[in-house]
Amino acid sequence: MAARLITILAVAVAIVATAAEEQVWLSQGVTIHVTDSVHFTLSNTMYLEHGEYFCDEEAFSARWKLSERWAVGGGASYSQDRVERVRGEPPDDVYIRHHWDWSGRPTEHLALDWSYPVGDWIFMDSHRIYMYFREDERDWAVYRNIATVTAPPVPHLPWSPRPYFTQFIYFSGRDCYDGHDRFSQFRSVIGMSVTPLEHLSLSAYWQYRDIETPSCDWVQVRIVGLYAKLVF
After folding, report:
1. What whole-number distance in Å separates Cα of residue 85 and Cα of residue 94?
2. What is the pLDDT of residues 97-152, one digit of tens each?
3. What is the β-pairing status of strands 23-33 and 38-49?
4. Long-range own/partner contacts, residues 178-184 (CB < 8 A, 24 or more apart)
5. pTM for the whole thing?
6. For residues 172 and 128, what is the distance between their CA atoms, to the nearest angstrom?
7. Residues in contact with 136: Cβ distance below 8 Å, sequence separation at least 6, in sequence order
8. Residue 138 CB partners (closer than 8 Å, separation 6+)
9. 126 with 146: CB under 8 angstroms?
């Protein structure tokens, strides 16, 4: 068991290394099932770009399963951004000082989740409204549609890994975005999840993001992510 886990971690490190020129997301979390229908999740994510640690996010969410197919919930997250400030007078006394800028206000969300199993396949669709409250800006909301297809376990491999594909579509209410539809971001995620231990879930994924900036330019970002979660 230990040898297999070391092998998977080695492969994960290799994947991260190949993506060093883009972004790397490293997440850890814990999910606690209070009852059969209610659970809470705490998580932390570190964001790296070109090998530099530039953001950290703490998140909390809760879900209440209403039926076999429907669930409702919500949550909040706080983020810290690494900011560089130039001090001194050029050219001789200039130096760069780094500090962490706390978001101050959380980003809250409400969710309506739908899931439907077909044999060993699982189809999921989540409708989420995120509320953003920022200083010196008008408050705004973002709608995210998150659709996921999880494939059956791959046979003859340790821990029966399950491939999955997720697609995110964003519509923003922020003033800087033009147009009636307010389409502002698209994500595609290809990943693999395994459960090596009874209470441990691991996931590795590759993500492509196409994001509209406030200046109306579209920026493409490629990301490799690792997520380890304890489930009780």
Report:
1. 10
2. 555 666 667 889 999 999 999 999 999 999 999 998 776 667 778 899 999 999 99
3. antiparallel
4. 178/216, 183/212, 184/142, 184/211, 184/212
5. 0.81
6. 12
7. none
8. 175
9. yes
